[in-house]
Records
---
Amino acid sequence: MYRTLSKIAERFFTKAQIYKYGFNWSPMYKRSTGKVIEVSEDLHIVKIKIPLSWKNKNYVGSIFGGSMLSATDPIYMIQLINILGNDYVVWDKAASIKYKRPGKETVFCEFIFTSEEILNIKNDVKRKGEIDIVKTPNIVTKDGVVIAKLNKTIYVASKAFYKVKRKQKAAKLT
């Protein structure tokens, strides 16, 4: 459904606008309490904020850890799907978060892919068929104090490789 809506919206808006407002208006992302605040035109940089509010305040008055994880979880996958295009399969494979201190104020996170990283991803997938990418952004305060460290593993494969792999798995199951 979201892909279909995005395709229709591309007639009127840039991909960066669709990314930003699509996330911010999406009911499941709204529930995370995160908000996409900036998206570069090439989608290589996405910035979010997670304000401390009554919706995500835990028993001790800091941001609930689940809000931080859920607000950061989908960003890289959707970012890569849009950057790489339809010839690739992109999945979130794993996520972990290590909390360093309580989030007692609005916190921020940046999700960055350099042009060199994107080129390396494409070349590695071309060579190997599939790869795992590990990204480790930090959730920080406005002053740069680290609140939590994320560890995200993203799976990327060529569509052709992925189709063959799925057929082989299905054949083994029968």
---
Amino acid sequence: MPEFPDVELYRAAIGGRIVGTRVSAFQIASPHLLASVETPPEALIGRVATGVRRIGKQLVMEFEEELFCAVHLAVAGRFHWTASSGSTKPVRLSPRGNLAVWSFEAEAGSGGKLRLVERSPKKRASIRVGQGPEPLRALDRGGLEIPGSTREEFAARLAGLTNTIKRALTEPARFAGVGNAYSDEILHRARLSPSKRAGRLSDEEMRRLHSAAEAVLTEWAARLQKECGSAFPTGVTAFREGMAVHGRFGQPCPDCGSPVQRVRRAENEFNYCATCQTGGRLLADRAMSRLLRKKWPRTLKAAEERRRRLTSGAEGED
């Protein structure tokens, strides 16, 4: 799922292309894509784009007369841009291809088509068209924007929680724009276990977590913008080259060299370094730990020993 750095990348790229242009057409593949029907999609046609902002993980395009169009990309939604080429031929829509297309025109002949694509059988992306400040404010789940926040503001969002830090960081009502990928990176940078209870952090651990969260998000946002330059973002993914642990199961931790671990739960998984974050202890994987029972290795050392025994064919001797 695109998170703070990725949506910020889209925000800058789309804003630089559509602000000052006029919507000439807005097509959607299915009405099921719309999260609300209070303001019809055709209300955008003929309106000039005045700005693009990010609210949490949503990208919001703003138009004249306080109209807006908010897009939640969910897990697999992505934007594509095609600059105007003089052709007025409409883009083909398909539930498996282009879910929505915004056509923008400018007096100078510039403009183009912004397409929403979701390459997944599970269609979770959504679009909400609205008008006025109240519906716009309603999009905000109330999560704290971490970059620029104070340590006191950050700590207040975790005070007294029995949830794990991992879960707390990804709750949109607590923190804006953080999901599975960057929470993995934040916790690794802070040297904290994903399973530690959020309400039990010491002052020093809270300092490290806030510092890591702010640094990881701002550094990756700047890095992606630098890599993209003036081009439109392509290859937006939760798995980035240069990440410390996310998506790097079995690969060496860049800081200590220990193999990166993972925990699978339902459709999700998260990654961590046992040496850097949990004192060598392995976190229980609900599926594998129940399957292996007594053979489940509880420490990194035991896991490495089990791996060597499996390699040598000695596991059956237990």
